[in-house]
UniProtKB/TrEMBL annotation:
Name under which the protein is recorded: Cellobiose phosphorylase
UniProt entry keywords in alphabetical sequence: Glycosyltransferase, Transferase
Keyword presence, Iron: no
One protein family per Pfam: GH94_b-supersand
InterPro entries on file: 6-hairpin_glycosidase_sf, 6hp_glycosidase-like_sf, Gal_mutarotase_sf_dom, GH65_N, GH94_catalytic, GH94_Enzymes, Glyco_hydrolase_94_b-supersand
GO molecular function, one term: glycosyltransferase activity
Annotated ranges, domain Glycosyl hydrolase 94 supersandwich: 11-291
UniProt domain Glycosyl hydrolase 94 catalytic: residue ranges: 305-726
Amino acid sequence: MKYGYFNNERKEYVITNPKTPVKWTNYIGGLDFGGLIDQTGGALLCKGDPALNRIVKYIPQLPASELKGETLYIRIKKNNEYVVFSPFYVPTLTPYDYYECRVGNGYSIITSEILGIRTEVTIFVPMDSQREIRDIKVTNISGEAIEMDIIPFVEYTHFEAMKQFNNADWVPQTMQSQCINEADGKRVIKQFAFMRKDTNVNYFTSNYPIASFETDRKIFLGDNGYGTFMKPLSLFQEELSNYEALREDNIVAALHKMGQLEPNETKRIITQLGQYTDFDYEMTEIEKYRDEKCVDEAFIKLENHWNNYLSKFQVKTPDEDFNTLVNIHNPKQCMTTKNWSRFLSLYQLGLGVRGIGFRDTSQDLIGIMGLCADESTEMIGKLLSIQRRNGCAMHQFYPLTMEATKGESGEMENRDDFYGDDHLWIVQTVCEYLKESANYDLLNKVVPFYEKDSKDKPLEEATILEHLKRAIEFTHDNKGRHGIPLLGFADWNDCVNLPKTAESIFNANLYGKALLEMMELMTHLGDEEIVNKYKDYYDEMKIAVNENCWDGEWYLRYFDHEGKPLGSKVNEAGMIYTNAQSWTIMSGFADEQRATQSLESLNKYLNTKNGIKLSYPGYNGFDPNLGGVSTYPPGAKENGGIFLHSNPWVIIAETLVGNGDRAFQYYQQINPILKNDNIDEFEVEPYVFPQNILGDEHPQFGLGRNSWLSGTASWVYQAATKYIMGVRADYDGLIIDPCIPKAWDEVSIIKEFKNATYNITIKNPNHISKGISRMEIDGKEVDTNKAPIFADGLVHNIVAYMG
């Protein structure tokens, strides 16, 4: 509890100490307009592509005490001298009497008490308007009258984010600021830079007259630019210069003279930071959001939207930390990751290197299927439009241009020109959508393939169902000497880059899972011929995996270009890999004996108190035949680190073999809520999953990094809801198949499914982990553990008895 606590009633995490070990962030808005806010008021905002339309300058590598993007200064006069501080603590570092940052759903509220001034700032993006609102309320709690000024501050970046760093001549010449004065003393301060195409204009304004302003950082800091954000010298002058900068580092510092505040008096300022192409239209919106009532209504609408989203699936179990994560923070992270992919965080800066990944987003979408499935259809279409005609897929794309690349750094050299797993993930995504929505028309939607002619017209298009079939056929047609699918440049583990002709057991299992999904779908659609075809494919791969990939106590992970195994007892490093064990169970390839043995080996060699490592032992020193995995020290990231994305797959595998106690143990090992009392080791936000935690071969064992935008969110949510709670959608009903800790007497679930509410109680009188002996629906006993599709808008009560 050193840095904060969970407030479940308000669905918030409350940070009580601004000096967190690293910046702790929250997301506001979406990719159309929005970004992240840190716990000291810094902001990283964009509109659309973060690489090509960045608004504010946020450099995470700067010290935590430095201003990043935005802040707020307050100036009071004591003994005829100005005292300047920030209610956000950063950048002035003024000692505070009280501080909290409430990390909410789509908003952050920062409250502080400093020098007799209580400040509360609510930061959010309205759902139906593209602007960042900062609703600032200041109250005099000093007991005496205080003369006070408020100075919001924004530091802009060039729209093309990389230009800020790699063209220090051109960028300063193109960034320009102008001020538009309004009749009532209000001002709109514009900032723009020339772009490749249309010129978008950033602006700052408020609902209160701006007495004076500054747009040049050098003048604002003073002392020929050697002043600091901790003590900007211009704020010790009566007025700012009103200079309209036509080059250099553009900022906005807007001085609002509040006059004298009497004891307990509160004043309110609402600022807007946005971007427009049509000024007349934007002025209408600006006037709207200068109205306090309109801002209050917009905030309530945002809260209601998130409450409705979270209400679609709620659990109650004997473990409150599990409930908190499943009911609030995990689904919130799922939606955030779906919205942003890997585009914009403190770790992925959207600087033209990472776009929206085919593999990443296919998995992210599954995390929201049970909560708002229809929000996934547009992205499913976009993903399939970067699939190639042969069935494989481009690795990532940029949503504004729909340009795609084969790899994370553009075209790959000296490797196969595909990732062996990308195209297979979308099969699960589409099937999960159909199970939740029953919108089978989606399968008939025609989507182009990626290849285009000289006039940029698609060479071929096909239905979504045909796209899925092409994905299956690509893997079927691209296998190696052991009958195992080719690795390509890499599979899910991007950092193992073996030479051409290497084979991936992960790809084999992902292919097996895709075949199971397609067989189930085609059975439901009544296509027996293709079901039989895929059954032959499945049996063929199952034999290949079990005849070639069993190492005696666990499954292998790869065969290299020479046919030598990796993830084998013959390897000094990389002897065993996690994903080879979990996914062989998820694909159904492992029989009961091998499933049990491989999970025991995983527990023996790979499990730690902070989660399951990706592999063991770590590689120690660079090996060009292995690629990126050997660039990390042992215990870090893919080289034997606790890569959290792979942990829920093990949890799911344990539930499939009926081991509820171990599944829950693994779940709790990575539950970030349980890190809250040991946060100086973990460091990152305790309300979201990070991508990775350093493993026990590393001296900083337990340290987390790369929080928020991780496929971990989607898969942990699936592991908790579909496999531990056991409530999962099927084409013809809702399956109730829990695998819980034996000690739990009873759990309850509320799920909205196909226009009905399923109120489910699971009773466990015999204290077992898995198995439903009987079930009642609306008081009548049924001979199945699958509830039908009611679609009647009513609440239906289900009681399932384990035994």
